[in-house]
Write a structure and sequence with these properties.
Layout: H1 2-78
């Protein structure tokens, strides 16, 4: 009978350990999902700002290119540079 008690006790310990592992895994997965939700919300909130910033950078770049083109045309007219 003593051997059966030890075997039963070991089975209970194994089952409890498996439960702890499953619970830990479930908690880890829940934390991962929560982090994903937080990241998704952050991106959603900031994407408009980033789009606006990108649009502003593009406008500045286009403005700079137009400015350089005007300078190049004036220089061509004045004969300071030769056309390619």
């Amino acid at each position: 009978m003593g051997g059966d008690d030890g075997k039963y006790k070991r089975e209970i310990e194994v089952e409890e350990e498996e439960k702890r592992k499953k619970l830990a895994k479930a908690q880890k997965l829940e934390k991962s999902w929560e982090l994903m939700r937080i990241c998704k919300e952050y991106i959603k909130e900031n994407s408009k700002v980033w789009e606006n910033e990108e649009e502003i950078r593009l406008q500045k770049r286009n403005e700079e290119e137009r400015k350089m083109e005007r300078i190049r045309r004036v220089a061509l007219k004045k004969g300071k540079i030769k056309e390619r």
